[in-house]
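Reopening closed ticket. The problem is back. First fold of the pair:
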Amino acid sequence: MDLSDGITKKLDISGVIGFSKYEKDKIIILSSDSINNTRTGFYFKIFNYKKSVVENEFETNITRDRFCYDLNNNLILYAGSETIYSMDIDNKNEQTIYSTQDTIFLKISIVDNMLYCADMKGQVVHIVDINSQIKANQQLSLNTIKVFSNNKSLSSSTYGKKGVDIFKKNNPGVEVLFEFIDGKEYEQKLKLKLMAGDSDFDVFIVNNNILPELLRNQAFYDLSSFDSIQKTLNSMTYGIKQLCSAGETIIGVPEHISLDVWSVNESLLESLGLHLPEDSWSWDDFYEFSVKARKDLNSDGEMDTYAMACGKQFFISRFMLRNYNCSYLDVINGHASFNREEYVDLVKLSKKLFDEKLIMENNDVPITKLDYTLFTMQSLSSIEKNEKIIPVPSLSSKRVYPAGVSLFCV
C-alpha cells in the first residue's frame, strides 16, 4: 500500500514466507519453491517493488519469518530459539550476535540500530544494540575461540551449549563465537581459508567428503599430544578413535558420527519362523537368509515377503560396494584394489539378489517400514528405545562397517 495515496498493489511474486524493508524502493523477501505443497528450497530475494522485478536472489537455510534487514551493516539478522545470528549479504558469512537461554524468539525487528527480540516463552522483549554487539565481538578476538562451521544449529544445540559451558568454566575470560556458512559454500570457503593461511578462526568442522583432500594438504593440527583427548577417545567405543585419526595422528574429535543399521520387522520375523544371526553376518549369510525370507504367507500361490524393498542402484552402492570400499579403497593415498576375487564374487552376488527377486526392487530408499519386508535402513543415532536392530552384512574376510563422521579440527 502506498501510504501517500492509499492505493494497494499486489506484487507479482509467489511463495512468500516473510519480508523486511531493504534499501529505497526495495524489500528483501524470504520465499520458497514447492512441489505438491511440499517446500523444496528457500531463497532470499531483493525485490524492487517500483519496477516489480527481482534484482538479486540467493539460496538460504533460513525457513521462518524471524528475520529483518540491518541497512547500516548490510546484514540479515535472524532468530533461532535462543540465539540471534547475522548473515553478511555480500559474503554470506554468518555469526552469533546475541545468545541467551530458556527463550523462544518469535519475532525480531530493528529500529535505529536497536534490535527488538520478542521472547514468546518469557513474555518479554530483549533489546540488543547491534553496533555495540558487533564492536564487542571484534574486540573479543584476542580472548575468543572462533568456530567456523556449516552446522547452523551448533551453538544452540544441547551438546553445543554444554560444550561451551564446560570450556568457559575451564577457561575463564575466553569467549566462544560461531561463524556459519551453508553447504558447498562452506567447503569452498574453508579450503580457501586454509590454503591462504587465514588465522581468523581456530576450530573448524570437516566431514567425509572433503576429509581426504585436506589430509593430503596437511591442513590439520595433530591433537595426539593432548592426554585428555587421547584418554577420552580411548574410552569410547572401538573404532571411534580410528575415525578421528590418520595413522597415528589424531586430526579431530567427533562432532557427529552416523552408522547405517537395519531395523527388524519382528512380527514378520516371527511369522516366517526365522532367527537372526547373533553376531555379525556376511553377504553370503544375507543371501541365504533372503532365500528363506521369501514365503507365501497368505496362501495365494505367490511369494509375498522379502528381506528388503529397495532401489537396486542404492542397495548395491550404499550397502555392498561401500562396505568393500572401506576395506580396499584408500582415497587419501590413491590406492585401490578391485582386481580381487572377493570383489567379483560380491558383484555376482548383488546380481543374484535382484535377478532371483530376493529383494523387492523399487526406486525408494529403504527407510519406510513395510508389513512384507524384514529390514529397513536406519541411522544408529535415530533408533527408538525398544527397536530391534541388526548390523548391515559385511565382507566375509573383514568385519568392517562404513561410518560417516564430522570432526572438530584445529
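Second fold of the pair, where the issue appears:
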Amino acid sequence: MRALRPLATIIGVCGVALVAQAGTAPSPGPVDAGRPTLADSEPDAVIAADLRAFVNDGSAEAALLKHLKQSARATAKKLDGLGAKSTDIDDALRLQIAQNLEDKRALATDGGLFPMTASEIEREVIDYEAFKLETYVRSGVFPKRYFGYFDGKWDTAPYEATLMRTAHGAATTANAYLAAHGSKIRVSDQEIAVTFIAEGGAILLREKQAELDDIHPVLGIGLDDIATGFKLYPELVQQLDAQFATNLGNIVSWQNGQPYLTRNFKFAEAVLGTTVMWVYEKERCEKLLLAKQRASLSMRDGADQFILASLVYNSGQLFDDGRVAQIRGFTTGDYVYELSEKMKAKRFALPVRPPAESLKVLLESGAYADQQTTWSTVYHVLQRYGAYVSLKAFSDTFDAKGTFRRVP
C-alpha cells in the first residue's frame, strides 16, 4: 500500500491544474498525398477538398460553403466597430475552419477518415469556429472544444461511454438525495460532465491515458476540498457506492483530525467524486447567495447556476451578478485585461488583450494566443462556460435541461 500523504501538503504544492483543449485524439495517421494542405494552398482550397472527403455529396458541400459564407458575414457584423475589415475577418474564420478540418483529416488511419456528417461539420466546425472567434475577441478567452469527449468516435470511446453513464446515473441519485433532504438545489448531467472534463478529465483522455484508472483526486481531477465534501455528504457517498459498486468511502482516511488520501480513483470513481463535490459547491454557493439576500440558485436558469457555482468551485468566493452577466455574455475582454495589468506586479500576465487588439493580432498572426489554464478564476470559468454553451448550441449531446440525450 502506498504511504498516506496529508491532503494539506498535496493541495499546497498542486497549484493550478492543467487542462487540455480539444477532444480525444490518437496518434495522427496518414494524410492523403497530393491533396491541398494549409502548407501549400489557400484555406478555401483546403476546405473544399476536406468537405469533398468527409461529405462526398455535391449538394451538401455547396450548402456548407453557403453556410460558411453566411457565418463569416454574421461574425464580421458582430465585430463591427473594432477597426477590422469584414474581408479580413472572413479570411481569418476560413483559416480556422480549414485548420479544424485539417486536424480531423489528420486523424485518418488505415480504417478510414474520422467520421463527420454534413450536420456535424456545419455545427461543430463552422458554427463553433465562428463562435470561438467572436467570444475570443469579446471575452478575451476562447471556449474549450469538448465535442470529442462525448461522441464515442475514437480511441477513448469506452471511457466516454462510462463518463456519460456515470454522470447521468450520479446526477439522478444526487437529485433524489437533495430532494429527500429538503434542498432546492439540483444538479445536471451537463454540469457534472463539463466540470469533470474541465478539472482534468480532458488531459486524462488525451495525453495521460495511462492514468485513466489511476487518477489522483487532487492533482489529477482537481478535488482540492474532497476531505470536507466527502465528510459532509457521507450518505450520498454511500448511495453512489451502492449504485456503482465502487468504494468512494475509503478514499479519505481521517487520523487524529487530519485527512489523508489512501489511494487514487478509478475512472468512474473520479466522475462520482466530481459529482459529490459539485453538490457540495452548489450548496455552498446557495448558502453564500442567501446570506447576501440574493436570488437562490433554484430561481436562476442553468447558465447562471453553472457560472456562479463554477466560480465558487474554483475560488470559494461569491461573485456579483454583474460579473456573472459579463461571463454569460462573453463581454469580459476589458475586465480580464485590466485585471492582468493590475496584478502584474504579483502574478504573471494573462495571455489576453483588449478586444480591438485581440482581433488585430489574430488577423495578423492567423493564430489564437496560447491559453493554458491560469490563476484568474473568471478566465478559467470562461473557458469551461464556453464549452458548456458550445455543447448545447452546436451538438445534440444535451437537451435543454442539461440531460444527456443519449446514454450509452
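Update: turned out to be a display glitch only; the data is intact. The first helix runs from residue 7 to 14. Residues 12-31 have pLDDT under 50 and may be disordered. Please close again.
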